[in-house]
Amino acid sequence: MRASSSLVQVTGTNLTYVYIVLAISLAALGIAAALRAQILAKADGTEKMKEIAQAVQEGAAAYLTRQFKTLSFFVAIVFVLLFALPGTTEIKVGRSIFFLVGAGFSALVGYQGMWLAVRANVRVAEAARQKSSEGAVQIAFRTGRVYRDWETDRKSVV
User: Fold this and answer.
1) Distance CA 66, CA 129 (A)
2) Residue 110: what are its φ and ψ, rounded to 5°?
3) When comparing pLDDT for 11 and 78, which is higher?
């Protein structure tokens, strides 16, 4: 097996490592999807709890929107600085574009993590209200596991 271009050649054992990382990443995404489905299938509480959860979700979305707007300025500056570093045009474009890819995956993981966390919180509270400490802890830990899997996959792509 051989995947190559004029700039990068990945062959032999290194190509095997790439496929191993890809397989592990896909497995982690599968586990994360299954855990996410289990978390969202749990009861989400009373009407008042749902109302409060909706307000928390709106606040989290506003926070992320503001954070992404602020960080976009820094991303643009770093993109330009990376392009200004010495190297051939292909290298300048490649490192700048892949910085954007990494920033995009980081933003996606942050958004997905926050989206699930604010939805899991009300489910943890409902499990606790039902006097199921085991259920509450299970939901909380599974939510953390999903985020960890997404973060691991983001890092392996970058």
Assistant:
1) 33
2) -60, -45
3) 78
Question: Could you list the residue range(s) of the whole structural domain that residue 63 is in?
Answer: 2-157
111, burial (CB in 10 Å: exposed 0-12, middle 13-18, buried 19+) = middle
Alpha helix positions (H), 3-132: 12-41, 47-84, 89-129
Least trusted range by pLDDT, from 3-12, 46-55, 91-100, 109-118: 3-12
In the block, residue with structure tokens 């643009």: 76
Q: What percent of the chain has pLDDT over 90?
A: 61
Closest CA to 81 of 98, 101, 96, 100: 96
Q: Are the C-beta atoms of 99 and 78 separated by less than 8 Å?
A: yes
Residue 156 corresponds to which amino acid? S
* Low-confidence winner among 23-27, 30-34, 153-157 (lowest mean pLDDT): 153-157
Q: In the 8-state DSSP scheme, what is residue 143? A: H
Q: Is 142 helix (H, G, I), strand (E, B) or coil?
A: helix
Q: What is the pTM of this model?
A: 0.73
Q: How many domains does one find in the chain? A: 1
d(CA 37, CA 41): 6
d(CA 37, CA 50): 18
- The helix (run of H) or strand (run of E) holding residue 3 is strand 2-4
